[in-house]
Write a structure and sequence with these properties.
The chain has 223 residues and is mostly helical. The chain has ten helices and no strands. The longest helix is centred in the middle third of the chain and has 24 residues.
Length: 223
């Protein structure tokens, strides 16, 4: 039986989050009430996720926080400067947490994919704006954050991931018919798209069910 025709089991242990991560800092949490600059960034994240960057003004963001436009301009000269801060202080740290999984070594393919799914769900639980913002402004054609995020991060983690997938295919551990460069995007899409329409979820009660669902679909195609 070749690798493309094998079926897999999804043991309960593979559906549990990895608790051995030494990096417990969680970038992207809301700012404290006294941090006006941080509150403006947090409000921008939510509004950008809800209605898009193009239709969101600095005045709208200030109103959401409950400060004057003049106060917003005190912290940011304009919306573009706020977006740059948002990318550097919220989106890049989130992306680096994903890259921590992508660059991990000596991990079996199924465990690797399971950890990535759980890392994505972990981030969405802490940052409910992230899934809809990713779909609207990073994944979609013409998204206004795509180039900014890529310019900050490059493609090192994703390139290493694609090479690892190709090596697993060579070893017969992964279906030879899948495209290495598309595996990461497929995992992101299957995990995040079901959550992209929900902004008010601080605790994903269904995360284990979603993780099992995604891992089952991917597992029977990848392995």
């Amino acid at each position: 039986m070749n690798s493309a025709s094998r079926t897999i089991d999804t043991p309960t242990t593979l559906l549990e989050p990895d608790t051995g991560d030494p990096l417990r800092r969680r970038p992207g949490r809301p700012a404290g009430r006294g941090d006006t600059r941080g509150l403006l960034i947090d409000a921008a994240l939510v509004l950008f996720a809800q209605q898009g960057i193009a239709t969101t003004t600095l005045r709208m963001i200030a109103t959401e926080v409950g400060v004057t436009p003049a106060m917003a301009h005190y912290h940011f000269k304009g919306r573009e400067q706020l977006i740059d801060a948002l990318v550097a202080e919220r989106l890049v740290p989130v992306s680096l947490r994903i890259d921590e999984v992508l660059v991990a070594d000596d991990v079996a393919p199924l465990v690797f994919v399971s950890r990535l799914i759980h890392r994505l769900l972990e981030i969405v639980a802490e940052c409910p704006w992230w899934a809809p913002l990713w779909v609207r402004e990073i994944l979609s054609e013409g998204g206004l954050l795509t180039e900014r995020v890529h310019a900050r991060l490059g493609e090192a983690g994703r390139q290493k991931w694609a090479k690892r997938v190709a090596e697993w295919q060579r070893q017969g551990l992964m279906n030879k018919d899948v495209e290495p460069d598309l595996v990461f995007v497929s995992i992101m899409g299957l995990t995040l798209l079901p959550l992209a329409g929900t902004l008010n979820r601080s605790n994903l009660a269904s995360s284990d069910l979603l993780a099992k669902h995604v891992l089952t679909i991917l597992g029977r195609g990848l392995f």
